[in-house]
Specification:
With 270 residues, this protein is an alpha/beta fold. It has 9 helices and 9 strands.
Length: 270
């Protein structure tokens, strides 16, 4: 409510609560509201400040947090040494608007949001589905709405939490969603640099994905040193990569089986 009061925004005003997929779902639902004519523009994103005793105790009791004490090896998504995530704090907001509204006000357009997928694992409160079906379907739905085939995707910003289960099962899901293209698409986890911002993660990662399309730079997975046989795709290890990036999938896979994927397209208009 506070943001609407400050900016005089009188459209729909509500909070999405889907654990680690919250910000991705918030952006996706705002996208749909604009696409179907309910809004011209929307402020969407997420923020989280979970570094509290009760949150740390809860995640630690779930054995979700890293066991490493060296910051260089604490958050190492897709690496064989990974033991859990590094909890982080932060927030990010995007301004979504119809193309007509953006052009009418002379907006600096960063990227297009082309598709959105959202599914449930219906499996377990903390463990992802070992078959990766829900996450795979989320990616497929986002690509379907964007009207593209897997071969058109240049980069996947993975959920990539650095937990033993997530990274293994997300790799399985990517293979199911992408087919043969899974072997050639660039994948990285920016959580290797930010830690896991929980409900805010999807917004930060959507912005990283949008900037990848604009700047032609794919962010790396830092700290990657020991390959895991179960995680055998291209995770852009340790160094950013220059590339033409037209389409990105940004994944958020939350506890409770909440899956969300944004398909972000390079802005090529005038």
């Amino acid at each position: 409510g506070k943001i609407s009061m400050v900016y005089g925004a009188k459209g729909v005003n509500y909070s999405v609560v889907t654990a680690c997929a919250t910000a991705t779902h918030a952006i996706g639902e705002a996208f749909r509201a604009i696409k179907y004519g309910h809004l011209d523009a929307c402020i969407a994103g997420g923020a989280e400040a979970p570094i509290t005793r009760i949150a740390l105790a809860g995640f630690n009791n779930m054995t979700a947090l890293t066991r490493e004490t060296d910051p260089k090896t604490a958050s190492v998504p897709f690496d064989a040494r990974r033991s859990g995530f590094v909890i982080g704090e932060g927030g990010a907001i995007v301004i979504l608007e119809s193309l007509e509204t953006a052009q009418a006000r002379g907006a600096n357009i960063i990227a297009e949001l082309a598709g959105y997928g959202a599914t449930a694992d219906a499996y377990h409160i903390t463990s992802p589905d070992p078959e990766g079906e829900g996450a795979a379907m989320s990616m497929k739905l986002a690509m379907q709405e964007a009207g593209i085939e897997p071969s058109a995707v240049d980069y996947i910003n993975a959920h990539g939490t650095s937990t033993p289960l997530n990274d293994k099962y997300e790799t399985i899901a990517i293979k199911k969603a992408m087919g043969d293209a899974a072997r050639t698409v660039a994948i990285s986890s920016t959580k290797s640099m930010t830690g896991h911002l929980l409900g805010a993660a999807g917004a930060v990662e959507a912005i990283a994905s949008a900037l990848a399309t604009r700047d032609g730079i794919i962010p790396p997975t830092i700290g990657y040193a020991q390959p895991d046989p179960d995680c055998d795709l291209d995770y852009v290890p340790n160094q950013a990569r220059k590339a033409t990036v037209r389409y990105v999938l940004s994944n958020s896979l939350g506890f409770g089986g909440h899956n969300g994927t944004l398909c972000i397209k390079k802005w090529e208009g005038q």
